[in-house]
Amino acid sequence: MNVKTALILLILALATIFALVCVLLIRGRAPSTCQDQPPEQEDTDDGQSLVFADLTPEEMAQVVRYLQGNLGVQLVDASRAKPSDNCIASVDLQVPAKAEVLRFLDGGGARPPREALAVLYFGNQPDPNITEYVVGPLPTPAYHRDVTVQKYRGKVPYHRRPVTGKEYMDINALIQQELRKAPRFLATCCESDGTDLAILTTAPRGFKSGDRATWFVLFHSMAGTGYYLLPVGLEVLVEHRDLRVSHWQLRQVFYNGRYFASMGVLEEAFVASLLEVVRIPKPQTEAVLGSMRPQRPPGSPGPLQYEPQGPRYSIRGNRVTFQGWSIAFGMNPNSGPRLFDIRYRGERIVYELSLQEALALYGSNCPGGMLTRYLDGSFGIGRFAYELVRGLDCPYTATYVDRHYLAESETPKTNQNSLCIFEHDAALPLRRHFSDSQSLYYGGLRKNTLVIRAISTLINYDYIWDFMFHGSGAVEVRVHATGYISSSFLHGQGTDYGNRVGPHTLGTMHLHHIHYKVDLDVDGQLNSLETQDMAYKIVKEPWSMQNTIERLYLRRERLEREDKAAFLLNTPMPRYLSFASPNPNKWGHPRSYRIQITSFAGEHLPASSSMERSISWGRYQLAVTRRKEEEPTSTSIYNQNDPWTPTVAFADFIDNETITNEVSRAPLGGGELNAVGTTPAPAPARGFTRPVAKPGGCQAGKVLLSLTGCLAPLLPRTWLPGSLWGSCTSPMLKMSPIR
Length: 739
What we know:
Layout: H1 3-26, H2 57-70, E1 86-94, H3 98-106, E2 115-122, E3 129-136, E4 143-146, H4 148-152, E5 156-157, H5 165-179, H6 183-190, E6 197-201, E7 213-220, E8 231-239, E9 249-255, E10 258-260, H7 263-271, E11 313-316, E12 319-322, E13 325-332, E14 336-344, E15 347-362, H8 367-371, E16 373-375, E17 399-407, E18 413-437, E19 439-458, E20 461-470, E21 475-483, E22 487-489, E23 498-502, E24 505-508, E25 510-520, E26 528-540, E27 548-559, E28 566-568, E29 576-584, E30 590-597, E31 620-623, E32 625-626, E33 664-665, E34 668-674, E35 702-705, E36 731-738
Antiparallel strand pairs: 1-2, 1-17, 2-3, 3-4, 3-5, 6-7, 7-8, 8-9, 9-10, 11-12, 12-13, 13-14, 14-15, 15-16, 15-25, 17-18, 18-19, 19-20, 19-35, 20-21, 21-36, 22-24, 23-24, 25-34, 26-27, 26-29, 28-31, 29-30, 30-36, 32-33
């Protein structure tokens, strides 16, 4: 490198550092006043939103101590517990009943007691089971009550429990023990003794209730890169139902299209030259498929987003306020982000908006791939929302918030900076008009949005969860999917199930389904579902009655019952769906919020499938049901390991009750079928919607200019690559006010 090049790079580096310092320092300045700006939004919450706040680490620790001293059984730390032990699986907030919360928030009633929900695995009992306790009041617990039967209408069998980290460790030890029975085969096929191979779980774990037998897929492992693209062709089936780890066994082996009873039998076939072996050398670091290492020197720095007068939102505890918006935010360790008491201009429009489940379903001609139907909630969507990288995962100027959880341990854990909040300039006018007729003027409204974001890494996929609040009063939910695809070993007719993405790697076809719960309270709790669509009517033109016109008119309908409001996949939906209050606006129309959904999901499972009921929420684009306290979620973490007898089946919620002027909720689905391309790029779960709400004339950020005025320059926003393979943005749901 010559001196001139080095000098140029040094100047660029110094300029970048200077820009970043300016961006970060500007946040500390007090915002200057401006007559044209709206006044700073006042936070009048007075701590009421703490009724929705996630548990603190101290509260979690208090619950653990209480359970240890009051259950009368020996509890082993879940990080060390065997299946035959008793342990605390998780502790999370027990959200109070909605009626109690609203009496407190709106009616001046007493604050509901703060309680925790503790999930325990009782393996050291005559009848092993899963039990859920409500523990309270916090911060000093004095009681606990078993809510399992009340919540699930029966006991929860022990075999439905999610697999713990300790169980995976014991399975890995068994697999390593079995791999040692085929040393010559492993040395030839993979240049390995088995200890450096990565092992990936699949799910579900069998074919009927009570099964706990899992196919594990083996990959070459390389530090600093995703092993998911490096299958070696070997998969093993482990039976781990017995509560005694010593009784677990490897039941079957798959290699390159053939099945064997054990690793020993596989080795014998190899030694006898009865096995076709595909030699896959250990990958080299500089040439590994799917490496995240930069392939070339970085170019000049891109534009940065900054806040010229500091952030225009404010955060107090678990509540954020912005431009008329007020939102209480939190994180469920299983199902992920959850928002409560969403208000716009002081009016509650959504009581709860929460992620419920993410399904990833695969196809392959290898056993692990063909069987896989991941229900990510059972792995921990919120628990695996890790720290966000400033300037890439979120803007440099975003506010970063820690999240705490207690799962598979008696000690709370903290994911630092795992949720970010920022204002986003869409670089697109929400509304604008230039007039060259009669008078010359320009009017416009900038499209600024508050974003609440978390990113969950579920094995190979990284899901970016965005909750967006627009200045127009619209709420948008979207998910981006990035990370790595999952893959199978390419053999036989593998390309019937995907595309080749490497020398021996099949990028398997798969689909994603994402499910959200929306509890809308539009101008009160008693809402109805109304539809509007277009139709034509042939009429005589009224001024001469000599010709006909295909006159377009608006066809309105109120959907009275749940069956009418459950819209199956691949069936037409009305163009306008809105939750309407019985109270009219000043023009006589019901005050309402429109729901827009556009999704490209494939069929979640055939109706004849024995496990379809466990993901029956996937049948619907939208299903509106009457809200019931005993139906808090559309699924359960126990559905993954027993989908044949689901603990919660969403289809049971739809029993044709009336939903007119009732407290209703709208579970929403979205997703996409992915046929992986010929490069190993992650395929996104996406659905596209377009905003339709038009803001009123007094929204914050309005610009009204004459042609002789002076336009201040707009500031660029930051766009940074999500990964080597890129990422895809995908709005999945938009709710727009109709005033």
